[in-house]
């Protein structure tokens, strides 16, 4: 029995698993690796070339993007995909927006509301060249290009380690801050580190969010809760012999024609 790959790298590998479920792809930084990067954080970088290839592959197979609110729908998701970006990195605006725009694709970027225009300070304990986050003017450019934003707290904490009051502040105030700054309604949330439990999910519901992304691996199923959306981390393809064999087999069985 084949199992869903642990990461998203190409459409053929997940094609056998697509039917009614929604693939929600998770990206962070669309950039070449910086000079200094802590090995566990390497997987959060996708090169501009690989990203463009992933977008083009989905587009030429006849897929179209849906908003994350598609997770509220009970309709089957056929040839639909959702693109999500965590943290609001500037590299996404610079390197992901052009291919998204040329494919007519939309996506959502989850912003850390107190850190706009700063860097990923929450990773400061690791050796990594700091990565810049979009400032307010860049977020306006992102929105003007037809892309969406959601909230990813004020400061990117592990929410389950906070008191109710602290967690409520991170969850609710980030929403309000983004709404005030950008004059739009913010209804979508993303848990930093995917860290959540019943208590945190209840606070997210109380704050009025309609959807919330986790880092639980998998395709989002119609029966899943919209406040615990499963995603697949998108990466470059692995070059291990096992992965190459798997990719080769997947291409042979690929069901989507070029002009679907
Ligand atoms: Zn994050």
What does this entry look like structurally?
With 260 residues, the chain is of the alpha/beta class. The chain has a single domain, classed as Alpha-Beta Barrel (TIM Barrel), CATH 3.20.20. Strands 1, 4, 5, 6, 7, 8, 9 and 10 form an 8-stranded parallel β-sheet that branches. Strands 2-3 form a two-stranded parallel ribbon. The protein is built from 7 helices and 10 strands. Helix 2 packs parallel to helix 3 and helix 5 packs parallel to helix 6. Bound molecules: zinc ion. The site of zinc ion has 5 residues, from strand 5.
Brief summary:
This protein has helices spanning 11-14, 48-60, 90-103, 136-144, 164-182, 198-206, 241-252, and strands spanning 24-27, 29-30, 45-46, 64-65, 80-87, 107-111, 148-151, 188-190, 211-217, 229-233. By secondary structure, the chain is α/β, with parallel strands linked by helices.
Mean pLDDT: 93
Number of strands: 10
Quick one: CATH class? Answer: Alpha Beta
Strand content: 15-25%
How many helical stretches? 7
Low-pLDDT sequence parts:
none
CATH superfamily heading: Glycoside hydrolase/deacetylase
Ligand roster: zinc ion
Helical content class: 25-40%
- Distance, first to last CA: 27 Å
Based on CA atoms alone, the radius of gyration comes out at: 18 Å
Helical/strand content category: alpha/beta
- Large-scale geometry: globular
CATH architecture: Alpha-Beta Barrel
Largest sheet: 8 strands, parallel
CATH topology: TIM Barrel
Counting structural domains, the number is 1
């Amino acid at each position: 029995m084949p199992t869903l790959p642990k990461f998203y790298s190409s459409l053929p590998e997940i094609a056998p698993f697509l039917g009614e479920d929604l693939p929600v792809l998770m990206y962070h930084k669309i950039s070449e690796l910086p000079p200094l990067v802590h090995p566990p954080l390497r997987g959060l970088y996708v090169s501009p070339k690989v990203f463009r290839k992933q977008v083009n592959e989905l587009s030429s197979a006849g897929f179209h993007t849906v908003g994350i609110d598609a997770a509220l729908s009970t309709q089957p998701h056929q040839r639909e995909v959702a693109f999500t970006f965590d943290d609001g990195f500037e590299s996404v605006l610079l390197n992901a927006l052009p291919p998204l725009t040329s494919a007519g694709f939309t996506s959502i970027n989850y912003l850390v509301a107190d850190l706009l225009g700063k860097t990923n300070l929450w990773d400061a304990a690791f050796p990594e060249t700091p990565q810049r986050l979009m400032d307010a003017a860049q977020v306006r450019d992102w929105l003007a290009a037809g892309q969406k934003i959601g909230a990813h707290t004020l400061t990117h904490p592990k929410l389950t380690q906070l008191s109710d009051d602290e967690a409520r502040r991170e969850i609710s105030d980030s929403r309000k801050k983004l709404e005030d700054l950008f004059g739009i309604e913010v209804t979508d949330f993303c848990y930093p580190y995917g860290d959540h439990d019943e208590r945190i999910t209840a606070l997210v519901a109380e704050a009025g969010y309609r959807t919330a992304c986790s880092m639980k691996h998998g395709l989002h199923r119609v029966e899943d809760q919209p406040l615990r959306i499963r995603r697949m981390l998108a990466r470059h393809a692995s070059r291990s012999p096992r992965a190459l064999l798997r990719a080769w087999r997947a291409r042979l069985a690929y069901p989507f024609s070029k002009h679907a």
